[in-house]
Write a structure and sequence with these properties.
This protein has a three-stranded antiparallel sheet, with helices on one face. The protein has one helix and three strands. The chain has 63 residues and is α+β, with helices and mostly antiparallel strands. 21% of the residues lie in helices and 57% in strands.
């Protein structure tokens, strides 16, 4: 779950995802069968303005 959260947070930061609630699911393909591993709910909150004038979101995980 920690790895999923870290990867998802990195991705959401890189694509400048909007504030809000995100569901992230991870599946593994084993021998042609798709298997669900984990789903996490992540809440991104808009923080205030940064020194360069852009707002930066904060991501928290909810289990």
């Amino acid at each position: 779950m920690r790895y999923t959260t870290a990867c998802a947070q990195d991705y959401l930061d890189r694509v400048a995802a909007r504030a809000g609630t995100w569901l992230v699911s991870v599946y593994r393909l084993l021998g042609g069968e798709r298997r669900h591993l984990v789903t996490v709910r992540m809440k991104r909150e808009k923080l205030g303005d940064s020194p360069v004038g852009k707002s930066s979101p904060r991501t928290t995980m909810q289990v």
